[in-house]
Structures are given as structure tokens and as C-alpha cells.
Design a protein that fits this description.
It is a single chain. The protein is of the alpha/beta class. 35% of the residues lie in helices and 20% in strands. The protein has 19 helices and 15 strands. The strands form 2 sheets. Strands 8-9-11-10-12-13-14-15 form an 8-stranded mixed β-sheet, sandwiched between helices. A 7-stranded mixed β-sheet has the order 3-2-1-4-5-7-6. β13, α12 (332-335) and β14 form a beta-alpha-beta unit. α17 (415-427) packs antiparallel against α18. The radius of gyration is 23 Å and the shape is globular. The two termini are 23 Å apart. Mean pLDDT is 87; it is low at 1-6, 166-171 and 461-471.
Amino acid sequence: MTLTGHDEQAVLDQIGGPLTSFADLGGGAQDLALAAWQRYGCTILLVDVDRRGQFPDRPSDWIARYRDRLIAAGVDAGDIRVVRALDTLPQCDLLASIDRFGERWKIKHLAPVLRQALHADSRLVLDIRKGSGAFPFLKGQGNTRIIAERDGKSLRRVVFTPDPPNPEADGDWTDIAPKLAGPDGFFREGPQGHSLLFVPRDPRMLVVTFDNLDIAMNKRDTRRPWGYEFIEKQGWSMLGVLAGGWTWYRNDWVAAQFDRLRDEGFFAGFDRVVFYGASMGGYAAAAFSAACPGADVVAISPQSTLDKALVPFETRYRSAWSYDYSGPYGDAAQASAAARRVTILYDPYEPLDSGHVARFTAPNVMRLRCPLMGHRLGSSLSQMGLLTPTILGALSGDLTPNGFYRALRARRDFPRYQRELFLRALARGRPDLARRVGRWVLARGDHRAIRRGMAKLDGDGAGHVQSESDR
């Protein structure tokens, strides 16, 4: 069912991204699943639940039809996963129940699935019919925003955002962190779930990382801050800065903590200090490096600020637009000018990321381009076996552009990169170039998506397939 005047791309615009996973609860959101995959290349999970929220003994009839339709539309079969048991359902960035729970089926039966699949930054899209009881059910669990209506307001499409966790009430992190700090480290708690954890090891090297507490506790099996195991393995000291949600660390307490650490000479006690983060954490790494002039910064796909006056092109992260980005730690592009070196890894073909990176104009900036890797390029580098040596080189100060680009040649054998090259050639009206890419790839082994694309080219001579640059 489609609500008048509100297509799937508009729904994705309302939600924002990026997304790594999409879950269809019951099989009614095929168009939205395809749109999400075309824009973000996310994994699509087909959650095989019936009207009672139960997983049937045998696969439902809609599963095969749904999967075949996605593949026919160009979705890589490897990006489609069928979920047939609650304990195999992972947390997902975007979930959808279209023409199912909330409209024809009682949403209360979906409660176990939502408890399993929602995390603090998830979004749930569903159609709610008046009198279904869905609005009261969701009211105490988060925020429900109406984005479209039909049938005289009796049917509404909504986006549900779960309430963030309360780490102070949960107690899990407050139990874990002091033990990690040990007798010589420290753990400090602040408002909105913000906290600092210092784990002392080698006095010569300190790595400052930034993470979302919900991800650390609920989406990471180790229940450790981002980069913890990697830094521990090197024997380096670590200062982990955590936020209770997507706050971009815009809290006076966080700024005051960095002022305090600077004034107390904490950073001066180390021979070398590196600030390290990705996306929101990349922003924070660059911004808070101002507390330690001469430090190094390593940032993956960072934002420079979310101040709309400075970055009017930024359309993501609406929930954080209202924060105050003034002060010495507000504009990461300016704050990081005092660093020794700022190493930024980014995809130049992601226009929003490139817009932010372009604002880092200080002479200490080293930009490392990762074409066609997307915003979450860290996962692609990891799959190619390049993330660990790259970050190790960046943190140790040995990473050079020539060395990085030599290593990045491995992307030529990386299936997602090959697919994006093929799709980009088609999107730019170059079927001849797409054929050259396709023949080169298929001569070295099978690639289902490109094989199907080549068959389509041979069948109709051309065609336009959406690439990441169009999404």
C-alpha cells in the first residue's frame, strides 16, 4: 500500500542515513527495501513472522517471491538474508511494517521482535490505522512522528524512534568501566550518559577514542568502547569518551572535562597523543584535539560541524542540528588546526562527506581518498584486510599517502567496489565502459550482480542502474 504523495525515497529522506541494515517485518515493504538498498547498499533482512508475531515452522510463501523480486531488480543475493528465528535476528538500523502490524495485524504481537531488533538509533516505519491500538502501544517506548496520511486521516504512515537507553539507571557500564580503569586509571560520569574512561598502559602513547555507549553495550559483543581491543593489543594507554546517544558530544560537561585534562597536564604526561574516531567520533576526534595542541588526529568520514549556518548542505542527523556548535570545540575544521597532523579517510564520491572534508583547509591535513567505499568505508577496508594496518600506521605516525594508495589497490578485487564501478558506468550513460568493467571482472571469477547486469546490457543494449552517487 502506498500513501498518497509519499513515496519511498521521501520516506528515506525523512529518516536520514546512513543505514547498514533494513528489516521487513512480514513482507509488505518491498519498495522501501529496494529503495534503501539502492541508496545505501544495506543488508536486507526478510523477517518471516506471521500475524501473531510468531516464526512459522516452514518458510512463508512471500519469502521466495520477495527475494526473487529484489534480485531481479539488481540486489546482490549476498545482501539478502532470511530471518526465521528470534534469536538470529540482529539489531537493525531501519525496520518496516507496511500493510501489516499496526494496520491489519495487532502490533502488540510484535513486541518481542522489537525488543530484539531495535537499538537506540533504529527507526521503525509502519502504517497505523485509527483504532488499532498501535499509537498507545508505542507511546511509552519512544517518539512517533506522522509523515503521511490517507483515508481521511484514518490511516497514517509514521516513523517511530525508540527512547534512548539510560546508562545511569542500567548500571552495566558503571559496573564494567571502573574494572577496566583499574586502580591507576579513572572513570568519570556526566549527564546524558556521557562518560570518560582512562585505561593506563604505555606512558609514551595515548589514544583518545569516541564512541556511542548504546553501540558499545548493545551492538558489540565485547561490550568495550570502540578500538579498545586494538589499542590494548598495542599496549597503548587509552582514553575512551562515550556519549549516551547521538549527541555529537555537545554537552558542557564534556567540554569541561577536556579543559580539566588540559589544565591538569594530563595530555602532557605522554610522548604522543592521537585522537581517533569515525563519523560522529571522527568529528569529536578533530574537535577535541584542540585540548592537546600538537596531537595527531585520525578521522574516518568525519563531520566538520552540524551548524547549519556553516554546513547548509548537510541533510543527515536531524536530531543533532539543534545543538550548540560554538566554542573552542565546536567547529572541528578550525579546532584541529592546532594538531600536528590530521589524517582523514573519506570517499570523495560521497558529496556530504566531501563537503565536510573540504572545510578542513589547514596545512596539517592529509586527505586519503577511498573512492566508492561509502560513508562506512571502515567496514569495507576491514573486509579487505586493510583497516588494521592502515589505522596502525596512522596511529603510529608511519602512514604515508603513497603507502596507503599502494595498499588500496586491493580494492580492484573487492566485489562491492567492482559492482560500484559497473553501476557508476551505467548511471553515467556509458554502457561501453560498463561492458569493459564487466568483462574484466568476470574474466577473473564469478560476480552475480555484474553477471546479471551484463545479461541486461546484452538484452536491451543499455539501461540505468542507480549507483551510490545518485543515492
